[in-house]
Amino acid sequence: MNQTPGQKAAKLLTYAILIAGAVFILLPFVWMILTSVKPSKEVLKMPPVWIPSKIQWQNYVKAFKAVPFFTYLKNSILVTVMITSCELITTILAAYAFAQLEFRGKNLLFLLLVATMMVPGEILTIPNFVTLARLGWINTYKAMVAPWATSVFSIFLLRQQFASIPQSYYKAARMDGCSDLRYLFTVMVPMSRPTVVSIALLKIINSWNSYLWPLISTNSREMRTLPVGLAYFSTEAGTDYNTLMAFSLMIIAPTIIVYLLTQKYIIQGVSKTGLKG
Amino acid sequence: MKRILSLLLCAVMVLSMAACGAKAPAAEAPADAPMQYITPEDAKGLLDDSGYVFFDIRKAADSGAKTIPGAQAWDMDKAKEGDAEAGKATMTEATKGLDKKIILVCYSGKRYAQAATNALSAIGYDMSKVYTLEGGFTAWSEKFPDLTTGAAPAETQPEEVELVFWHAMSGVNEEAMQKITDDFMAEYPYIKVTLQNQGGYTDLFDKLMAAAKANQLPNLAQIYSNRLSWYVDKGLVLDLVPYMNDPEIGLTAEDKADFPQMFMDNCIWGDGQYAMPFNKSMMVLYYNEGMLEEAGVAVPTTWEEWAEASKKLTKDTDGDGDPDIYGTVFANNLSTDIAPWVKQAGGLCMDDATGKPFFDQEPMRKAVTFLNGMFQDNAARFAGEDKNANIPLQQGRAAMCVASTSALPYIESGTEEGIVINCAPLPANETDDQLYYGTNVTVYDVGSDAQKTAAWLYLKYLTATENTAYFAAQTGYIPVRKSAVSDPVFAAVLAEKPMKQVAMDNLDKGFQGERCIGCINALNALGDQLKLVFAGEKDLDTALADAQVNGQKAVDEARNS
C-alpha cells in the first residue's frame, strides 16, 4: 500500500504515543514482577534497582506457604462466580422491567433505586455486618455474596442500553407469539452483549479484588479469599514487599487470563459505555 | 408476566436495600423448626435397627456419664444457649455421610432437641428423618433404668470450652502466637482457642466496632487502650480483678509486681482491670553509627544536642538545596506520637480523666517549637513516600530516625551492606520520659462463665514469663514481664541484639499515651494543624489555638455519640 510521507509520519507518531503509553502503564507491572524475585535489601533501594542481583525464587515459595493458597483460591473463585451470576440475573431482570414494562410507581421506584447510589459504600459496612450477623450468616458464603448480589449502577447502565432498542422489535416479537422473558433473553440480551459483558467483567474484577468485605464478613481461614491473604505480608512496623509482590502476581494472574480471553468484549464495552475496570 | 417481573423487581429492590444497608428491616430470629416426637417405648424397639441412630445432645459431661446404649454424644449446649452457628457445625459434623433416621435424646425433649432440630433443618438434613425422644433421657432412664450405659466418673471432667481470639498479627508474630496457643491447648486439653486474624489494626478495630453493634464480640481481642476505653465505658469488657485475685487460678503478688507498672496501668480503669499487656515496643532514636562517627557527633542525649547533631548530619551532596541525607526522619503521623516531647517538656497532651486537650499550653508549645526548629532548618523530614521512618536510615539517606523497636526485624533484614544501625532512648529535656506503645489483650463480657475462666487462664499463660519471653524473642516486641530478661531464650536474644536491651533498660522511665474517649480524634485534629506548622504554612500560635478548639470539639462529639 502506498502511503504519502504525511500519512507515514502520522502513523509513526501514533505508534510513538501508543508505545509511550504502554511503557507508562506497564512499568508498575514490570517493577512488580522484578520485585517479586528480589532479595529484600534491594526492594526499596534508592535509586531503584531494576534488575535483581540474584533471582530469588524463594519469595514465591514463601508467599505460597504463608497462607493456605488453594483454599483462598477456591473461595475467591466461588465467591466471584456467585456474585457475578447473581448480579447478572438481578440486573437483567430489573433493567428490563424499568426499560420495557409499564407499571404503577415505576419512575418513583427507579428514582429510589438510583438514590441509593448516593450512599458511600464505607458507611454501609457496619449496618451490613449487623444485618447479616442477625441473620446468622457471618462466616458463610451467603454473607460474602448477598450485599453484592445486585448493583444499582449496573441496572441503570443496562436500562439505558435496553431503552435504546426500538419498541418495534418488541412488537414484532409479540406478534410472533414471543413471551416477555423469551424476548428478553433471545433478543434484548444478545443485542446488548457488550454492555452485559462489561457489567460482568467489572463485577468479576471488583469481587476478585475486594478486600474489606470478605475480611469483615468471615472469621475463619477456611472462608477467606486471596486478597485477604495479602494482609499477611505487612504489619504496622513494615512490609515484606518482595513476598507481597510474589503473592500479588499469583492473585492477578487469573484476572489477566480472563482479560486476555475476553478483551474483544471489554474493548467493545469500553467504546460503547466509556467505562473500564 | 408483568406481575412476575414486578415481583422480581421487588426482590431486587429488597436486595439492593440490603446492599445499601438502607434501614433493611431487622431480621427476626429464625422461627423454630417443627419437631416430631417418638415415645420411649417405640424408640426402644429401634435400638438395634441399623436404619436409626441415637444422638445424645446433652452436655458432654452428662452424655459421657450415662446414656442410651449405642448413642452418639453430640454436645448441643452452645446451640441451646443461642449459638446457632456452633449448633450447625456440630450437626454438620454429626451427619457427615449419614443417611439414617436420627433420634434426638436430650434432658426432657425440649430445648436441646429444639436447638438440634433447628440446626439440622438449617443444614438441610431431611427433616422427615429426625425424631425427638419424648421426655428425653429423664423419661428413658425412669422407664428403662437397665438400658443405660456408663457410670458416673469418679471425677467430673471440666466442661469443654471454645474461645475465639481476634488479632491483627501476621507473619512471624502470628506464628509465635500460634505456638504459644498450641502449647496452652496441650496443657489445657479441654480449652480450644481459635486464633482469627482480622487484617491490620484498623481492620480489626473496625470489625470489633461492627461486632459490638451486632452483639458478636469474640471472647478475646487484641486492642489499643485508646480504643478499649469506649468498650469499657459501654460495659462490654470483663473485669479481670476477681480472676487475678483468685487464690487458685490468680496471680501471686510477686507475679503482679513482675509486670512493669505502666503496662498494668494501661489496662486499668478505675478499680477494674480490663486487659493484660501483650505486644509492647518503645519509641527510640535509631542512628547510623558510621555517619555519626564520621561527623564526630556523639549520640544525642538532650534536645539541644539532638538539634545540633541533626543539623550537622544533614548533607546536600549534589548542592540542589534539597538534602540528600537528612539528620532525622520522623514517622508520617505525629498526632498520637507527639506525647513523648510534650511529656519531656513537663506536660501532657490531654487530661485523660476529663478528656480536656492541653494543645494550647506551654509544654505543647515547647515541644512543637523544638521539633519545628529541626523541620525549618531542613535537618528533619517526615518519612513521606518511604512510609516507615527506618527505611531511609537503612539505605543511608538519613543519619537518624525516630521509630518503634518493633521495626527491628525489618531493620535486621533490609539494611544495606556497610551500614551499622544502633539505637538509643529519645534525647531528654526537662524529664527523660520514654514512650512505649502496643496493644493489650482484652476479654469481652460474652459467653459462659466457663469461657470467661478459660479466657483468663489463656491470658495468664500468654503473659507468663517464659511465653512472653518466647514471643519477644521471635518478634520485634519486648516481653511484658521484667523477669523475662533472665529467661534463657530471651537472654540469648538480648545478648545477640543489644538494641532490644534499650527497651528493657528504660522501662522505669516509660509511659503510655492518652487513651480517653475521643483522644484519637482530638490528637488527629492536632496532627492536622502540626502538619501545617511543619510545612511552614501556619504560625504556631494560631495553629495550636485552632487545634485546641477542634480537639475539644472532637472529644465532645465522641463523648456524645
Structural summary, described in words:
The complex is a heterodimer of chains A (277) and B (561). Chain A is an all-alpha fold. Chain A has a single domain (65-273), classed as Orthogonal Bundle (MetI-like fold), CATH 1.10.3720.10. Chain A contains 13 helices and 2 strands, in the order H-H-H-H-H-H-H-H-H-H-H-H-E-E-H. Chain A has helices spanning 5-35, 58-66, 69-100, 106-115, 125-134, 141-145, 152-163, 167-175, 180-191, 193-209, 212-217, 226-230, 241-273, and strands at 234-235, 238-239. In chain A, strand 1 and strand 2 (238-239) form a beta hairpin. The longest helix of chain A has 33 residues, at 241-273. The model of chain A has no long low-confidence stretch (mean pLDDT 88). With 561 residues, chain B is of the alpha/beta class. Among the domains of chain B are: 37-143, Rhodanese-like domain (Oxidized Rhodanese, domain 1, 3-Layer(aba) Sandwich), CATH 3.40.250.10; 161-278 and 437-509, 3-Layer(aba) Sandwich (D-Maltodextrin-Binding Protein, domain 2), CATH 3.40.190; 333-382 and 518-561, no CATH class. Helix content of chain B is 44%, strand content 15%. In chain B, the strands form 3 sheets. In chain B, strands 6, 7, 8, 11, 12, 13, 14, 15, 16 and 17 form a 10-stranded mixed beta sheet that branches. In chain B, strands 1-5-4-2-3 form a 5-stranded parallel beta sheet. In chain B, strand 2 (52-56), helix 3 (60-65) and strand 3 form a beta-alpha-beta unit. In chain B, helix 5 (84-94) crosses helix 6 (111-122) and helix 24 (519-534) runs antiparallel to helix 25. The model of chain B is unreliable at 10-29 (pLDDT under 50). Classes of the chains: A mainly alpha (277), B alpha/beta (561).
